[in-house]
Amino acid sequence: MLNLDGLWEFALTERGEESPVYDSFAAVPGSFDAVGLAFNRRVIGNYRKRVAFTGKMRLKIGSFGLHIRVFFDGKFSGESYFAWSPFETVLDGGEEEHEHVLELKVDNFIEGHPLFIDRYDFYGFGGIFDHVTLEEVREKEVESIRIHTLDHVTGEIALRVESKADFLRISFDGGKAKKYPNTGEILRLKVPSFRLWTPETPFLHRITVNEKTVEFGVRTLDWKGSHLLLNGKRIKLKGVNRHESHPEFGAATPESLILSDLLRIKKAGFNFIRGSHYPQREFFFRCCDRLGIMVWEEPLSWGNREEELSPRFLDALAQQLALTIRTSYNHPSLVIHGFLNECASDTDGGVAAVKRMMEVCHREDPSRPATFASNRVRNDRCLPLVDILAMNVYPAWYGTEKLSGIKSALDAYAEEFKSMGKPMVISEIGAAAMYGNHSEEPWTPWSEEFQAEYFCNTVSAVRENPLWDGFMLWLYCNANTYTETVYKTARPRGFNNKGLLDEYRRPKLAWREVKKLLAESGKDC
Ligand code: ADA
Description:
The chain is α+β, with helices and mostly antiparallel strands. It has 7 helices and 34 strands. The strands form 9 sheets. It has a 6-stranded antiparallel sheet, with no helix packed on it. The chain has a 6-stranded parallel sheet with strand order 28-27-26-25-24-32. Helix 1 (255-268) packs parallel to helix 2 (282-291), helix 3 packs parallel to helix 4 (348-364) and helix 6 (448-464) runs parallel beside helix 7 (509-521). The longest helix is centred in the middle third of the chain and has 18 residues, at 311-328. The chain binds alpha-D-galactopyranuronic acid.
């Protein structure tokens, strides 16, 4: 495998301008519009590199935004609008070794994008957010391996391999390989000497099928009753929502930053992250697998109105959803598939869209529950369709309640929806605070004190009410959004300021207070 990260020749061009003059440089991975010449501009970032190879190589770009086109020796080789997802295309280097010219044209245009709309409350960065690699394409290679646990007591797993190979040589954890004819059928195998994956004991196994090795965990999920079960035991999700965002790095957050975020989240006593509102990077999942942090992943979408649920949008969404599920399938930390955050789920169009996405989830992955985060809640017509009831509610922030009324507002939701007999979580709840903005009692909105009490009241309310299966606080840290949209007044400085930490990860009072509360409540929360 060849890693193409590092220094690339670079040029910025406007829409329609297709002859870049490569007179600058860019680092890959990197967002080109977080700071510098392209800050806040909608442009094309053109990246160029010369690379020598022969034969067929698979070019893989781990994550990008918002649209990528690949040109190889001047010829178009492929494109993708599935921002934040990996993209692959096969390049043919021919028989004689010589240098080829690889160009990646990455634009952040919102107009005309099938999935990104200018109302979304997060910044649509441009650039290459993850590693760029080239790997040899082999004949009869193992194209994909998908594993899920069938039984956490016996360690039986279901294994699906896509390959044209005649035989599959399969081994676990570097042990002795067994040979199976490749019939294309799902294999049921027992993992030898297995240990369960749990958030407290995030044990990982390895499986090798011919030339390919992947990691997985032995753990089951059950959501058929009123509560979510992990390995047959009830589990309460204590989580935060998180954006892949930083004022200087944009969406190309360095791996060191991702890891320090996750270590901090784990150490504070959370066990869950909702990856809002797009697919998560491979590195993120590898860390969550190892740290024992459970994850909700969703494709790109946000607050879509009925008229936005067009065939073009839904086709693209269904494709990105399937791609997301396949990409992350083996990660034991992934426990919920999401989609269509806060869509028009009180309309006919919303019902059809949610039905279609639920079908995609169940077809692609029968081993995990699927849902969407609803902000229609009491008027929602889609709740009977989903596996888990997930509610985005903001009492005492967008609602008129007092801070002291958060508990009764949440209790009322729980009482109202318990008869549906499904697991119930609060997928978003939060209040904004400007870092360093303090108030005297009674706490005023936008102060750190108001926000701290807001989140503490939420955590206590969920802990004290056994009907809830968890909470996901909005938001782990401040995240880049727009200033020039309908959010102008409520998004000072172009950030969603509801972070428990600010955008540079400086803790607000809420972070310290919630941490204390989680430490006190320990496992019972
Ligand atoms: C919604 C949305 C979030 C964010 C939040 C807020 O619930 O899902 O992305 O915009 O509101 O901060 O108001």
